[in-house]
């Protein structure tokens, strides 16, 4: 009964995906009207797709795009990493297909060796591994994006210090932003440099570009910095004290996160130590317990 249900579910899901691919659903009237509205400006952050995706992964990518993937949070995380959405979707499909085939390959090898393995075991294992392979890239992207955002905030605090020093030397706000970003290196400074360069090409203000960059990368500190710079650039507000305070707040936040990570690592080490101590007590008490039991 269980193999029949699993086979029926898999067959029905495959037919449903093929039906969506062959006859895509018609867009709603609201989507049609939204297409008439001028599209927003191109994103500041750039992503790159792997070469093998353009050659072999297009069918899988189109199918997953029709299902509404990837979701908006994953797209934001991919922009932080600079990875293309098509590469991510192709990786999900490839890992799911590999997980689906792996138990059947093991089944064939065991059958060739003369060891019988139930069909339902291979089918259930394939579906479980396919689900894990489909969800694993999302988990990896979220973890890497969180680490990149933390590194970006660390670089942003250094950038604010450089801007503050340049402003103290008598430079204007825009000149300080551009001069300070040319000093640093790394992915974070590269993204800020690209945003400021895009602002120069499109003849927009640097703080508007930084605000868009913060929205695309989901980094609120950039939006706050853009708001402060906007006040300095339009209202003539004093910005040096504000930048110094923001840089100090970022460093305090990083120190707090580091202390939290250290405490979490210490708590994780408590369980292995407790298990080791329990094993040591068992090793010591075993002869005495054995003697008591033999005496009975």
Helix content: over 70%
Q: State mean pLDDT (0 to 100 scale).
A: 83
Distance between the termini: 52 Å
Shape: flat
Which stretches are low in confidence, meaning pLDDT under 50 for 5 or more residues running?
none
Figure out the total of helices. Answer: 12
The largest pleated sheet is described as: none
**Helix-and-strand structural type:** mainly alpha
Secondary-structure element series: HHHHHHHHHHHH
Q: How many whole angstroms does the radius of gyration measure? A: 28 Å
Beta strands, count:
0
The fraction of residues in strands falls at under 5%
Describe this structure in words.
This protein has 296 residues and is an all-alpha fold. It has a domain at 150-251. It contains 12 helices and no strands. It has helices spanning 2-22, 29-36, 51-56, 58-66, 72-81, 85-112, 119-168, 173-181, 187-202, 206-217, 220-234, 240-295. α4 (58-66) crosses α6 (85-112), α5 (72-81) packs across α7 (119-168) and α6 packs antiparallel against α7. The longest helix has 56 residues, at 240-295. It is flat and about 85 Å long. It starts with a helix and ends with a helix. The mean pLDDT is 83.
């Amino acid at each position: 009964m269980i193999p029949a249900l699993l086979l029926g579910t898999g067959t029905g899901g495959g037919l449903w995906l093929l039906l969506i691919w062959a006859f895509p659903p018609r867009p709603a009237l609201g989507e049609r009207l939204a297409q008439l509205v001028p599209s927003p400006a191109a994103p500041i952050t750039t992503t790159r797709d792997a070469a093998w995706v353009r050659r072999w992964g297009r069918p899988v990518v189109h199918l997953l795009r029709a299902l509404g993937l990837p979701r908006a949070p994953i797209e934001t995380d991919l922009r932080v990493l600079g990875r293309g959405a098509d590469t991510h979707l192709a990786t999900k499909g490839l890992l799911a297909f590999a997980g689906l085939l792996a138990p059947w390959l093991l089944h064939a090898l065991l059958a060739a060796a003369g060891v019988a393995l139930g069909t339902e075991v291979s089918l259930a294992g394939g579906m479980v591994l396919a689900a894990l392979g489909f969800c694993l890239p999302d988990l990896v992207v979220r973890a890497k994006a969180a680490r990149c955002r933390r590194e970006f905030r660390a670089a942003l605090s250094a950038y604010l210090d450089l801007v503050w020093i340049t402003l103290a030397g008598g430079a204007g706000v825009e000149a300080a932003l551009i001069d300070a970003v040319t000093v640093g290196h790394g992915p974070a400074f590269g993204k800020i440099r690209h945003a400021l360069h895009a602002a120069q090409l499109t003849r927009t203000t640097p703080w508007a570009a930084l605000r868009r960059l913060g929205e695309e990368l989901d980094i609120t500190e950039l939006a706050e910095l853009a708001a402060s710079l906007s006040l300095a650039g339009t209202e003539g507000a004093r910005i040096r004290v504000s930048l110094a305070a923001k840089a100090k707040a970022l460093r305090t936040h990083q120190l707090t996160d580091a202390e939290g990570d250290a405490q979490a690592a210490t708590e994780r080490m408590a369980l292995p130590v407790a298990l080791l101590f329990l094993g040591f007590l068992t090793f010591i008490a075993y002869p005495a317990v054995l003697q008591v039991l033999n005496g009975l």
